[in-house]
Design goal:
The complex is a heterodimer of chains A (307) and B (638).
Chain A lengths: L1 E10 L8 E11 L4 E5 L6 H9 L6 E6 L2 E2 L4 H4 L2 E4 L11 H11 L5 H11 L12 H14 L4 E5 L7 H18 L2 E6 L2 H4 L5 E6 L2 E7 H7 L1 E6 L6 H6 L4 E7 L2 E6 L3 H9 L5 E5 L3 H11 L10
Parallel strand pairs in A: 3-8, 3-9, 6-7, 7-8
Antiparallel strand pairs in A: 1-2, 1-4, 4-5, 9-10, 11-13, 11-14, 12-13
Helix pairs in contact in A: 4-5
Chain B lengths: L1 H16 L3 H10 L1 H21 L6 H17 L6 H9 L4 H27 L15 H35 L4 H28 L3 E2 L6 H6 L2 H10 L8 H24 L12 H21 L4 H20 L3 H33 L8 E8 L4 H4 L29 H16 L18 E8 L4 E7 L2 H23 L10 E10 L10 E2 L3 H11 L3 H7 E2 L1 H11 L16 E15 L2 E11 L6 H25 L5
Antiparallel strand pairs in B: 1-4, 2-3, 3-4, 5-6, 5-8, 7-9, 8-9
Helix pairs in contact in B: 1-6, 2-6, 3-4, 3-6, 4-6, 4-7, 6-7, 7-8, 7-11, 8-10, 8-12, 12-13, 12-14, 16-17, 18-21
Amino acid sequence: MLELKNITMRFESYDKRQDQTVLDGLSLTIPSGCIYGLVGPNGTGKSTLLRLIAGVYQPESGGITLDGVPIWNNPDAKRRICFVPDDLVFGPGADLRQQARFARTINPQFDKARFAELTGLFGLAVDKPLRNFSKGMKRQAAIALALAGHPDLLLLDETFDGLDPVMRNLVRKLLYAEVLDRGATVIAASHSLRELENTCDRLAILEGGRVLYETDMDKIQSTLCKVQVAFPEAKPASFFEGLGLAPLSFEQAGTVTTMVLRMDKSEAEAALRAVDPLLLNVLPLDLEEIFTFELEQAGYAVRSLLV
Amino acid sequence: MSETSAGRSRKAYVSTHIFNPGLYLRGLIRLWVPGLAIGIPVMILSLVISMTSRNNLNLSVMLVSYLTPLLFLTAFSFLRSRREADPAFSAPVTRTCLYVTTCLSALTVCVILTAAAFLCTLPNIGRNLYVPQGADPAAAARDAIADYAIQTLFSLCYGILLGSTVTVAIVLSGSIGHSLFLTLLFILFDTALSQTVTAYAKRLPMIYTQASRSVTEFWQNLPFRNLFSLIFGTSYSGSMLGALGIRLLLAALFFVIGWLLFRKRKAENAGDPAAGRGALHFTVCLFIFMLTALACGDRNRRIWWAAGAVALYCVYLLLTTRRLSSLWRCLPYAAVTAAATVLLLGGTFYAIESVIFHTSIDAEEVEAVYVNNSWIPEDVFKLRQVYAFQNTGEYASQIDPQYEYLKLRDPVLIQKIADMINKDKASRSPGTEKSETGLTEDPKLLVVTLYTKDGRSRRYEFMAEKQDQIELYDLYGKGQYELYRKLTSELPPEEEYPCKSVEIGYRSVRDKYPGYKEVQSVPELEAVFREEFETLDEGTKQALAMRFAEAMSYGRILNYNEYEVKMPKSSKDGLREIYIRLNYQYQQSTNIYVDIYTLYFRIDPELMPKTYRYICASIPKTEKFMKGVYSCYEVSPD
């Protein structure tokens, strides 16, 4: 389990008044064996948070522990972590084979066979200089190197940046496998909620150096549902409230009404079938809509946060 | 089994806490481009130098040591780039391990390059080797290789020292510009302080010790100053193993400072000019301290340099931080540093001036005087060979460079000088500006040294009116002329030796190290040499004649341990090598000489036995002669 307690991180400027506080008393607990998503607009401290967890930065205050062991300047804890930054850097003139060799010297549990398997899956040439790789291929190479190291905690910054849809799916599957087979924890940061949709088990939204909202994905998806219903004549919102349905959003186009409801979809379906609608559809609700409704309920104007 | 497991865990501990082979390898890979960029030209240079000259063999290894900062700058590139900081700082090693491993990778490349330069020179080292007649060439080659190996070792130590200094600068910086700037400040720190004291000392009537040690020399002899001077290493004898050890110790100290700073270094400062506010303020304080110190030392000219440098630094700060506020945020630190420096150094200097300028001269105290007027007639000055032949119209104020420190004991002269100094002092207050150059254009400036009866000496620079000067030169010149006549009366008549000066360089068989001693010979030597030389065939003459550069190099090599060589007591001790130097001089008047040209010849005992024997016999004789001159006329040989 990864625990961040009261983390404050400030970027020093030459003028003290211009110091920038990126994280301000942030606390977070990330259970083992899950894919944890960090979402937030640019400059909210996602990458900084990942660097703090990776032991690159030292927090000004607060502590970060992995299974109760502090990470900062602790090789034993850092060996269990692998960080794939947004801006990838490889050795000068190195190819993938050399990078793997280097990774093996740093990390004794680097799995050569797994690496060969992963590069085969991605279709990467191990003997070509990495500088000739495209952006997406570099990302694939970095993920292959990271996964072959069998880290207990994998930190991915802008995970899917540069990957095509096929590769995104492949990476997703690989991450699932890591979590399911080995019980690894994956923390993926992105500025786009859509990128993390269908990937994460838990998700947190960062804003202003703090965690604005954190939730379990299964739970949030089971508490909200979107239905489309039609009657011979248009029904007002009060009609549905009378049925025990409290719509979070209510839209009407002629006799067709679309609503987002805070309840299980089977319960909503049963309640609406009881009044004999002409049409009843339960529509899929995407992550962005869920968060919009949830955060608006919580009083945040979050449209700007969710790109 | 358990021992194996313990060994493994120890190995794992070392690889994460002290030295990591993987990161080391990575560091070496990162350094291969700068390594080649330095290595290839250096190796070519080594080959060319070794094939064409026996001088400057150590130039290429010195070049490697001067370029060591580039290796360290490359090795620590992750402190300047946030991209590179991620993999470096997220590696499962401690900060200490990262620092040690990075330093070792840079040092390894430095050692490899030095060794490559050394090895490239080695095959050709015998090509241009000077082997005296009858000497064993193999032994001479072995000696030369040993000498070169020692030079290489010193160069390597110098490179390590420079690298350690640069490491501290790099850790305090986040950009290459600031790293280089800070490195320059570290390296120039000693020079700036030395300049401060020297510039200040030049403005003062200098206090001399018994011989000729000035305030500047005293400064240069300070122990901590010598430690700093090791960074540049110019004024330090490289022949002692102690120096080698001190260099390495100092390098270790700098590495430890770098390590302490590195442990606290913030990875997020990569790309910023200075590694945080503290580092920026430190740089500003160091810079301002140096400039203020220079200004305290010399309020005349360097203050404008200081002003210019501050302006330049402001521009640099603006360019790098891109914030105007960084300038005025630094201002309090700069002001406090400047004020503290002025209080400390300025106060000390003012106190010294107050004491010195208010000390009156008591003519009774003075035993002898030496006058050096710095007014040099233009026509003589153009002849660069002159040492200090100053003609005031009628008298030469100096007879010969050999008698530079000629002291006179004329009571009238002493009284005259004392009056002039007191007169000048009355018209001045402490801190009066004066020209600092020895060869000043100001004809009013006079330099005198007074020697007191209890052995002290004091040098004064003061202004005097022309009439006073003429009178002074008249007195002093007359005294000098008398001495000159007395001296020359002991030598044969001038016309018998058109060659005015003959010097012998030699080293004895007993001496462990090559040594060198210059002695003023009796003039008959030239005649003996000439006579025997004319009997030789042209080829042998050519072989014995040494080119100027060759002779200088020979002299320099011999001069290596000049002061450790003892004079052989007699010719039976034997001389291994001798060379003779003939100075031909133009005689302008009775007492003004100008060097015209100089000839060098090797003296081969077999080819020129008569000259050889003459020299062997004359060495004690010349020494006695010179000692006689010194004691008689109180001319210091040192």
